[in-house]
C-alpha cells in the first residue's frame, strides 16, 4: 500500500451494502520457471454495491488482467473471486457465460455493435441470449436507449451514428439486463474531449441511480470523475482506496 501523508483517506462504503466484487488472494501467472510472469500477485480488494471505481496503473501493471478476471473473461491461477457474493472462480465456461450475460454489463473502447443491426436490435441482443420474450425485449431495449438519450435513434445502424452515439448505444446494451455491475474498459479511448465529457457524465448519472460502475482507464482526467481509484503496479495493488483528488501524488 502507498504510504503518503498527503494522500486523503476515503471513507469506506457502508458495511450494510453487499459486496459486488471480492477478490481474495488472487494470483494470475503465465509461463513457468525462468519465463514465469506474475500478472497478478496475491491481489485482494472489495467493491460494494453503488460504488464508482477506477482501476489504474501503467502498461503491464495488471489492471487489464484484473478486469478480465472481474468480467469472468479469464480464470485465476489461485485465490478466489466472488461476484455478487458467489464464488465464480471454479465455474465452467458455460456457467461463466451465463453469469457474464446476466450480472455484468460490458462497455469497451471499440463499441462492438453489429453493423447490420439497428440500435434497437443491438440492444435487444443480450436479452435474446437470456430467453426474454420478444415483446419485452423491444420494450426494455427502447427504455434503455431512452435512458441514454438515444430514443430518437432506435432504427439507425452504427454507420449512421457518431462515435459518441455508438458508445451510448453500447452503454444501453450493457444496462438492459439490469446487471449488478457495469464494467467499462477504456470507454472514452476512441472519443474526442467533448464527447468524452458527455459519456463520463452519463456514467455518473447511471451510478447516481444505483448502478455499480468499475472503469479501467489510463486517463487521469477520466478517473478523477470516479469516487475511488484502485492503483496497480507490477501485478500488485499499491492503493485500493486512492482519492481522485490525490492522483497527482502517485502519477
From TrEMBL:
Residues 21-250 form the ABC transporter domain. The keyword Transport applies. Keywords: ATP-binding, Nucleotide-binding, Transport. Transmembrane segments: none annotated. The keyword Chloroplast does not apply. InterPro entries: AAA+_ATPase (IPR003593), ABC_transporter-like_ATP-bd (IPR003439), ABC_transporter-like_CS (IPR017871), MacB-like_ATP-bd (IPR017911), P-loop_NTPase (IPR027417). This is ABC transporter ATP-binding protein. It comes from Pseudanabaena yagii GIHE-NHR1.
Amino acid at each position: 500500500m502507498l504510504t503518503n501523508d498527503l494522500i486523503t483517506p476515503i471513507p469506506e462504503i457502508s458495511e450494510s451494502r453487499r459486496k459486488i466484487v471480492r477478490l481474495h488472494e488472487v494470483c494470475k501467472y503465465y509461463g513457468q520457471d525462468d519465463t514465469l510472469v506474475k500478472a497478478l500477485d496475491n491481489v485482494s480488494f472489495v467493491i460494494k454495491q453503488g460504488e464508482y471505481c477506477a482501476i489504474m496503473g501503467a502498461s503491464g501493471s495488471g489492471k487489464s488482467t484484473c478486469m478480465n478476471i472481474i468480467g469472468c473473461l479469464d480464470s485465476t491461477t489461485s485465490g478466489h473471486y466472488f461476484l455478487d457474493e458467489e464464488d465464480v472462480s471454479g465455474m465452467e465456461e458455460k456457467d461463466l457465460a451465463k453469469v457474464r450475460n446476466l450480472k455484468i454489463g460490458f462497455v469497451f473502447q471499440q463499441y462492438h455493435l453489429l453493423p447490420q443491426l439497428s440500435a434497437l436490435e443491438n440492444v435487444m441482443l443480450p436479452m435474446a441470449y437470456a430467453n426474454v420474450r420478444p415483446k419485452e425485449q423491444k420494450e426494455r431495449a427502447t427504455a434503455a436507449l431512452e435512458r441514454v438519450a438515444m430514443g430518437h435513434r432506435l432504427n439507425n445502424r452504427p454507420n449512421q451514428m457518431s462515435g459518441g452515439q455508438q458508445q451510448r448505444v453500447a452503454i444501453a446494451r450493457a444496462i438492459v439486463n439490469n446487471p449488478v455491475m457495469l464494467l467499462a474498459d477504456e470507454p472514452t479511448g476512441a472519443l474526442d474531449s467533448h464527447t468524452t465529457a458527455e459519456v463520463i457524465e452519463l456514467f455518473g448519472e447511471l451510478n447516481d441511480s444505483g448502478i455499480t460502475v468499475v472503469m479501467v482507464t489510463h486517463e487521469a482526467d477520466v478517473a478523477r470523475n470516479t469516487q475511488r481509484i484502485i492503483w496497480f503496479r507490477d501485478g500488485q495493488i499499491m492503493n485500493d482506496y486512492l482519492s481522485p483528488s490525490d492522483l497527482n501524488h502517485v502519477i
